[in-house]
């Protein structure tokens, strides 16, 4: 499996946010997107996830398991918001996402109870999502990554609101995902506790430079 981005450019409104971004990542690799505020990190991730249209360029996932016309079909996107209904219980939220996503060919997600246990919050899945603290809500959003198999994880500031122990837990989740041949792309100002990361350094509309490990 290989993810290839070529010549990506994107606008927000009338403004050109970045141009000519190209990179390539293989299964088992992670890419850390870095740059100053406003350099286009979040916009790039949203383009990759299919939530924003690119001004120019292409994104392809070369997967042997099944054809992929749009990367979003094979990706989980974890943005600044947790994408959970506050009135529903954690179990109801995760059950919905498990059924909605299904499993991409080549892997299988875990059951809701196992996902909740994995993020360290076993025993509270019966509570409404809105009752949880900000850190607990973020952990439960991470459980969404586990209930349905998607080979690509697109992560925007994934460790926001997490304590040190939760940050270590998340690093373990990403490491396990990579060990299964998955791909992770993360934009963050905080260290993720992962080794061997490649970096894409965003510089806004003037372009980007990539540093390999």
Features:
single chain, 213 residues, alpha/beta, Rossmann fold, 6-stranded mixed sheet, 3-stranded antiparallel sheet, 27% strand, globular
Describe this structure in words.
It is a single chain. With 213 residues, the protein is an alpha/beta fold. It is 27% helix and 27% strand. The chain has five helices and nine strands. Strands 5-6-7-3-8-9 form a six-stranded mixed beta sheet, sandwiched between helices. Strands 2-1-4 form a three-stranded antiparallel beta sheet, with helices on one face. A hairpin with a 2-residue loop joins strand 1 (2-12) and strand 2. The protein is globular, with a radius of gyration of 17 Å. It starts with a strand and ends with a strand. The mean pLDDT is 86.
**The biggest beta sheet, please?**
6 strands, mixed
Strand content: 25-35%
Terminal CA distance = 19 Å
How much helical structure, as a percent, in the residues? 25-40%
Domains (count)? 1
- The CATH class name reads Alpha Beta
Q: Write down the secondary-structure element order.
A: EEEHEEHHHEHEEE
Number of strands: 9
Contiguous runs where pLDDT drops below 50 for at least 5 residues: none
- Described by the principal axes of the CA atoms, the overall outline is globular
What is the second-level CATH architecture?
3-Layer(aba) Sandwich
């Amino acid at each position: 499996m290989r993810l290839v981005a070529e010549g990506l450019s994107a606008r927000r409104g009338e403004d050109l946010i970045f141009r000519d971004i190209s990179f390539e990542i293989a299964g088992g690799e992670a890419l850390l997107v870095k740059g100053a505020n406003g350099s286009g990190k979040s916009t790039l991730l949203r383009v990759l996830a299919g939530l924003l249209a690119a001004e120019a360029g292409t994104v392809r996932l070369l997967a042997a398991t099944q054809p992929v016309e749009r990367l979003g079909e094979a990706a989980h996107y974890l943005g600044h918001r947790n994408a959970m209904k506050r009135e529903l219980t954690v179990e109801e939220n995760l059950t919905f996402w498990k059924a909605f996503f299904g499993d991409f060919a080549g892997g299988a997600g875990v059951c809701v109870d196992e996902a909740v246990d994995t993020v360290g919050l076993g025993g509270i899945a019966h509570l409404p999502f809105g009752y949880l603290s900000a850190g607990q809500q973020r952990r439960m959003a991470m459980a969404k990554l586990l209930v349905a198999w998607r080979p690509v994880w697109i992560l925007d500031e994934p460790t926001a609101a997490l304590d040190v122990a939760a940050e270590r837990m998340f690093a373990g989740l990403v490491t396990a995902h990579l060990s299964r041949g998955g791909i992770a792309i993360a934009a963050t100002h905080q260290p993720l506790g992962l080794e061997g990361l490649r970096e894409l350094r965003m510089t806004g509309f003037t372009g980007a430079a990539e540093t390999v490990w």
